[in-house]
Amino acid sequence: MIKVGFLGYDSSDIVVYLARVLLACEKKVAVVDGTKRSALMQMMQIPSAMEKGGYYHDVLFVPEAIFEKELKPREFDYVIHYFGDSIENPKVKECNEVFLVTDMVPCNAEFLKSASLQEGVQKRFLVRNAISTKYADRYLTELACLEIEEQSVYSIPYDERDYRCKCYLCTESRKYLKIKN
After folding, report:
1. Residue 127's CB: how many other CB atoms inside 10 A?
2. C-alpha pair distances (Å), 136 with each of 44, 68, 78, 100, 140
3. 91: pLDDT confidence band, cut at 50, 70 and 90?
4. pLDDT in tens, 95-114
5. 129: phi > 0 → left, psi -120 to 50 → alpha, else beta; which?
6. pLDDT exceeding 70 applies to what percent of the chain?
7. What SS3 state is found at 93?
8. Phi and psi torsions of 35, nearest 5°
């Protein structure tokens, strides 16, 4: 089982897209909401999903507490753990790979400095809504304490279509969500 974490600026849509890609590759995937506010479960917009979890297009989305108590993590090829701004969540240290996500606002990148990651974990740095790659490079310099390798830095340019897709995902997910029994 491979555990991939997403920490920092909102990346809920990327988490959903990654889960769907892995599912298309015939991998068994669980997405775990490790945020304080159940941000990912709220995105599904069904109150009962926040408590028990549910399937969205055959991918299991589940709160962290339920995943730990009721499921066998080893049954999954991939566990994508969405931490959002819950930087102190101890489960971050259990990930094989962590995406540190920010946008173009400096305080969001600064926030990532306090991330406590396990030694040897693969770290990737992702700047969303980038208007220039030079800012990703600047952030990388400022976040040198995280020891992120240059080839692990990515930027996603701002694109209004991406934002529309994210909004669509948040509003249309309720049509496809099956509540976990």
Report:
1. 27
2. 31, 35, 28, 12, 6
3. very high
4. 999 999 988 887 887 788 77
5. left
6. 86
7. helix
8. -90, 155
